[in-house]
Each structure stands twice: as structure tokens, then as C-alpha cells.
Amino acid sequence: MELPLIRLAVVDSTQAFLRRNPHLGSCVVLADQQSQGRGRQGNRWESAAGAGLWMSAALPSPAGVTPGVVLQRAMSAAARVLDPGGRTLGLKWPNDLVAWRDGRLVKVGGILGEQAGGRLILGLGVNLTAAPDLPGRAIPPASLRDLGLETPSSAELAICITIFWKNLKQEFQPLFRWPAPGAAMRWEEGQGTCLGWEPDGRLKVATADGIRRLSAGEVSGLG
Hints:
This is BPL/LPL catalytic domain-containing protein. There is one protein chain. By secondary structure, the chain is of the alpha+beta class. The protein folds into 2 domains: 5-175, 2-Layer Sandwich (BirA Bifunctional Protein, domain 2); 184-218, no CATH class. It is 16% helix and 35% strand. The longest helix is centred in the middle third of the chain and has 16 residues, at 67-82.
């Protein structure tokens, strides 16, 4: 059964809307434009009217799945819908949808997940037809159109993605994961070499001080 779809012309953010309205229960909120879109660690997510997919879904919390794994499964499911052929989109730890373009990693979207009153609220932002101009980013933004992917209507995408999100015990294998084992990586708090993505959603990294297992809340500015 499809979840009720609420479509808004403009909202501060679809995540905030669902947090303010717990009485709505399980549902999907889709916005044509966000005025205060939010990325991980409070970063702003640019939102030009009609240029992207801005959605959040309130769902029952899946039992026995760690938050990091929830995000990764949600990202993989979104990638499957946005890139049905599985030839372009991959995952960047911990919560970004990315692709390789002209030998460089670019970001097309990101996912947020939070628990609120017994519900899991998943939020997704994707650049569909245009990407914002954000100079100086280690991983610059791009749109699905830039990558030669089709861009169905945002409502159609939201419905299809939510169908997969309703069963986050199901796992899809992405085209690639970044960083991959052996990749050198830097973040604001340190640097090291990736040893792999752990089954619980953490990232295993070799640093000068030994092996660390990083969770999403410990890392910012990964590049």
C-alpha cells in the first residue's frame, strides 16, 4: 500500500514539517522548493524551485537495524530508483549519492535520518535538472541531467523510493562505495586510509594512531 503523499509548494524543510506534525503518522512529504533545506551537521541544502527532488518520509522504525545501516540501505534504494540501469550512481560514506564525472567525484544528493517519537524520518534531496553553484567544494555538486540520467517527475520518484524505504531490511548493492578500501582520505579531524565499510555502518580506517571505526557523527568534511 502506498503511503499518503502530501505535496507542498514551499516549506522550510520537509524534515522539519514532519517533526512538527507527528499526528500525520506514516506519510510522504514532497516540496517543490525548500527555504531552509538542511544537510548533515546543519549544512544548508540549496533548493532551486523545480530543479530537484526534496522529500521526507515518516515510517515505522525498523527493528534490529543500526542507524548507519539504515542510511546506507536508504541511499542504495534511492540510487536504484534514480539510476535504474545501475551504471552511474554510488554511495559516499556516510550519507551522499555520488558519481564519477570526468575523473572526479561529484555529489548529486544526500540523505538524512532521524528518530522522532517512535518514527523514522528519512529525508532526501537530489539535484534533478540543475545543481547549485558552490565553489570551493572538495566534491562539487552535479545533477542527474548533467550525468545523462532521466529525470521523471518528482512525485513519481518519491512514490517509488518510498516503496523501497518501507522495507529497509532489504539491501541493494550499489555500483560503488567511496571511500573504497585502500583509498587515502582526509576529514576535518584527521586523515587515514580506508579499510572498508563495517557491517554496522561505521567506516574502518587506519590512522597514524591505529585503527579507528568512525561513525557519522564523528566526521565532517570527508574528502
